[in-house]
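Support request, please re-run this one:
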Amino acid sequence: MSGGRKKSTRAETNRYELISCAFGGHVLAGTDVAIITPEDGLIVREFDGVRWHRCLRCDSWIPRPPPDAPARDIMPPRAEIAVPLRGRGLRDRYILRLIAVERAVHVVVLGGLAAAVFLFIGHRTTLRHDYVAIVNGLFGSSGGPDARKGLLGDFRHLFIITPSHLYDIGFLLVAYTTLEAVEMVGLWFTKR
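Re-run finished. Output below.
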């Protein structure tokens, strides 16, 4: 290709930056500055009474009127301007937060199971009485051969397990729920 731009092999996109700016707003520097100098042209430019601010995240130029009551006279030095997360780091944060949402689902399900186990332990005798009444109503007093299979057989198995084993299962579920919750918070805030 002579005279043309060389085509990139990898498509350069900033979709995560655009999503972040759409939900959180643009990150602009110099919106509170009285005087714009030519040295500030990389991030702020002024044309015909309108200031164009370059978003530090998505790289878009946003028009804004000059401030009525500026807080500073000139732009702060570049070392003082905080650049937001962008590129691969921003993409990684989105992925980690997606995993954190999945962990939140685990926390809800496991927490519900733990609560169900402890409620079952607390009301075991009443539930056993109701179970026996349902089985006798369906199959007669003999219980029938079908009462030991399928869903009714699984419920029957719950009444055979000793309360100490049920407590072990409940505390194991609580421990695993706690582990998932800590992992969820760490992933959301991108902490190790």
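The first strand starts at residue 44 and ends at 47. The two ends are 48 Å apart (CA to CA).
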